[in-house]
Design a protein that fits this description.
By secondary structure, the protein is of the alpha/beta class. The chain has two domains: about 5-20 and about 230-425, UDP-n-acetylglucosamine1-carboxyvinyl-transferase, Chain, CATH 3.65.10.10; about 20-230, UDP-n-acetylglucosamine1-carboxyvinyl-transferase, Chain (Alpha-beta prism), CATH 3.65.10. The protein is built from 13 helices and 24 strands. It has helices at about 20-30, 45-60, 95-105, 125-130, 140-145, 170-180, 195-205, 235-245, 265-275, 320-325, 345-355, 390-400, 420-425, and strands at about 5, 10-15, 35-40, 60-65, 70-75, 85-90, 110-115, 135-140, 145-150, 160, 185-190, 210, 215-220, 230, 250-260, 275-285, 290-295, 300, 305, 330-335, 360-365, 370-375, 380-385, 405-410. The strands form six sheets. Strands 18, 19, 20, 21 and 22 form a five-stranded mixed beta sheet that branches. Strands 2-15-17-16 form a four-stranded mixed beta sheet. A four-stranded mixed beta sheet has the order 4-5-3-14, with helices on one face. The longest helix is centred in the middle third of the chain and has 13 residues, at about 235-245.
């Protein structure tokens, strides 16, 4: 599917964004191993979360869909059953990595795979600590690539594991496996990654201990009890429209019910540092997660440097930050973001290639890029999405301020995280 984006005169809108993808995944998985019926409201209906849902169903979990509400019939820690076929995580790295943690702790055999893109993404960083806990994994290239065979072990050993990089997916996989280990399982990260798993485990009744960048869970003694979960709006999805509001002249945008988890709000910090007029109202806590409404007004942005400890707090938002950087005065530098080269596509290469296609000068670095603004986005061209939802949506926002329309190939990839993105975008043209 091609998407054609025309320049927009200004945005005056109130909107919501889809439920948080990370929280939707975790609500399904933890709900499946909790005792009783978990009701999930504002669930993200997307390709990625559907992959998680279908895998859990394949392991005997009943899940009912009602519009944007999902009901999970949890069977407790030991209620999953051996799947008859290969489990398919499709394009979802979160699904595969977190489920490897759950599969590691089962008494059965399972094989998990994904699409062509996911089969190229490294799994060794998850498999290594889970193997130390007593599970067995067999995969391509020495066990690092899917398809991956898991021979689980319900008598896992607790571990204390230092992760080489801050990764919420690695940490979460270890913590989920740690629920089944007899003793304390601890994950120590170089910097703190997003903590949705820790918050949701607490919500379901599990004690989680945190000290600095260390997280500890005590296994076996924990019982997970079903809960009613509200999934806040995904700030990674909101980021596209936050930037749209900042860079499109004469705009005011209200985005309601957005998740404001402090491990995810690096994008707000960075955009405010750039001079972005973003305010938060109606702040509250729901299911241990902070939530609020964002008010965004068009702003004169300036370049900044983003690096080191800040990167894990906004790693998914760097493609859209590149669009903001093109409209900021002065130089914006992204460093220490080499992790982006191992996402759905090489996002550093993709964003540099496509911004150049749009007439923007950008210098690609091994671990990031430099953009000197303010630059005109020329348009009148066809861009590639690389079948990567965040690249596709970032390019669409660039199209709002391009001098001429642009087309984006394979735009249907946005369904991975934001199925109604195009509908919201089209509403701006009133």
């Amino acid at each position: 599917m091609h998407m054609r984006i025309s320049p927009c005169e200004g945005i005056d809108a109130e909107m919501t964004v889809p439920g948080d993808k990370s929280i939707s995944h975790r609500a399904l998985m933890i709900g499946a191993i909790a005792n009783g019926k978990t009701q999930i409201r504002n669930f993200l209906d997307s390709d990625d979360t559907s992959a998680t849902m279908e895998i859990l169903r394949a392991m005997g979990i009943e899940i009912e869909r009602k519009e944007n509400e999902v009901i999970v019939e949890g069977k407790g820690l030991y209620g999953l059953s051996e799947p008859e076929g290969v489990l398919d995580a499709r394009n979802s790295g979160t699904t595969m990595r977190l489920l490897l943690g759950l599969l590691a702790a089962q008494s059965f055999y399972a094989v998990i795979t994904g699409d062509e893109s996911l089969r190229k993404r490294p799994m060794k960083r998850v498999i290594e600590p889970l193997s130390k806990m007593g599970s067995q994994f067999f995969g391509r290239q020495g066990g690092s690539l899917a398809p991956i065979t898991v021979i689980g072990n319900q008598n896992l050993r607790p571990v204390t594991y230092r992760t080489p990089v801050a990764s919420a997916q690695v940490k979460s996989a270890i913590l989920l496996a740690g629920l089944y280990a007899d003793g304390d399982t601890t994950v120590i990260e170089p910097t703190k990654s997003r903590d949705h798993t820790e918050r949701m485990l607490r919500c379901f009744g599990t004690e989680v201990y945190e000290e600095g960048t260390s997280v500890t869970i005590h296994g076996i003694a924990n019982k997970l009890e079903a809960k009613e979960i509200f999934v806040p709006g995904d700030i990674s999805s909101a980021a596209f429209f936050i930037v749209a509001g900042l860079i499109t002249k004469g705009s005011k945008l209200v985005i309601k019910d957005v998740g404001l988890n402090p491990t995810r709000t690096g994008i707000l910090t960075a955009l405010r540092e750039m001079g972005g007029d973003i305010s938060v109202v109606n702040e509250r806590i729901i299911n241990y997660e902070p939530v609020g409404d964002l008010i965004v007004r068009s702003s004169e942005l300036k370049g900044i440097e983003i690096k080191s400890d800040t990167i894990p707090l906004l790693i998914d938002e760097i493609p859209i930050l590149a669009i903001a950087a093109s409209q900021a005065s002065g130089k914006t530098s992204i460093r220490d973001a080499q992790e982006l080269r191992y996402k759905e596509t090489d996002r550093i290469r993709a964003i540099a290639t496509e911004l150049r296609r749009l007439g923007v000068e950008i210098e690609e670095r091994q671990d990031g890029f430099d953009v000197v603004g303010r630059q005109e986005i020329k348009g009148n061209c066809t861009c590639e999405s690389y079948k990567d939802h965040r690249i596709a949506m970032s390019l669409a926002i660039a199209g709002l301020i391009a001098q001429e329309p642009i087309e984006i190939n394979d735009f249907e990839c946005v369904n991975i995280s934001f199925p109604n993105f195009a509908a919201i975008l089209n509403s701006f043209y009133g």
